[in-house]
Amino acid sequence: MMLMNKTAVVYGGSGHVGGAVARVFAREGARVFLAGRKLDELEKHAAEIGAAGAAYVDATDRDQVEAHLDAVGPVDVSVNAVSLHGTVMGTPLTELDVSDFLAPVSYGLRAHFVTATASARRMAVAGSGTILTFSTTAARLSAPDQRQHRTGGFGTACAAIEAMTMTLAGEVGPLGVRVVCLRPDAMPETWGAGAEPDPQMQASTALGRMPTLAQVAETAAFVASDRAGAMTRTVVNLSCGSVLD
Ligand SMILES: NC(=O)c1ccc[n+]([C@@H]2O[C@H](COP(=O)([O-])OP(=O)(O)OC[C@H]3O[C@@H](n4cnc5c(N)ncnc54)[C@H](OP(=O)(O)O)[C@@H]3O)[C@@H](O)[C@H]2O)c1
């Protein structure tokens, strides 16, 4: 098992991505702690996958994140899979309010900054650890896609999370801590029951299909494991080839 003897915290642990990642981490032997704002769902998922704990933690609140990590104890892997609230979709940037543009940037960066730095501080003292952040292909959409989707501040938020990942990785790498961003394209399974993949989106990938939750979660487990010990300060492209870098 890839994550034997590892303790992992998954923020957004009852969400689509966080839930899938936590399930694979538990299967791979990790002691998993789910953190988020839907305690009922977190507890239910924790029981299903055999997680070590579930707790209410607002990932944007530094005091709550610090107190939770103090309670959990030494952490080997930190995963932030929280959703970015506040995005106004469909409005061209030229017509978007400044506050609407900045809302997902501020929310996403804050949540990732708070959780990543809280773990990094502790991992640096321990001399090892891995931090995983999440962005999306909105960070790298082609010009036609950008016009089509009009993602407001969302793409900028994702690009900023990737940039923060690089900066932190450079700072804490010499202290033994790896920091990697995972960048999937849209996973139709997360759109709700019966949702069909968009043929236009599928056609825009090199593989002619979208990534699956299982593929993303399995990659997260590999990247979190010692097998990926040479990997840091990078973005893992899980787009099925919809973006090239
Ligand atoms: N789904 C996709 O197709 C896809 C594709 C590419 C990348 N991603 C990325 O993957 C990540 C997770 O996406 P998802 O599809 O799993 O979203 P999701 O199903 O909505 O799950 C996100 C979870 O995060 C929680 N959350 C949000 N704000 C939080 C906060 N401040 N503190 C604690 N928990 C918080 C949400 O619950 P509450 O809001 O109720 O707290 C929810 O449980 C996001 O970064 C997303 O951009 C997703």
UniProtKB/TrEMBL annotation:
Instruction: Report any Pfam family annotated for this entry.
Output: adh_short_C2
Name the source's superkingdom: Bacteria
Q: Which InterPro entries match?
A: NAD(P)-bd_dom_sf (IPR036291), SDR_fam (IPR002347)
Task: Please provide the record's keywords in A-Z order.
Answer: Oxidoreductase
Task: Name the SUPFAM superfamilies on file.
Answer: NAD(P)-binding Rossmann-fold domains
- Give the signal peptide, or none: none
Give the family this protein belongs to, as stated in its UniProt record. Answer: Belongs to the short-chain dehydrogenases/reductases (SDR) family.
Name of the protein in question:
SDR family oxidoreductase
Q: Which organism is it from?
A: Paractinoplanes lichenicola
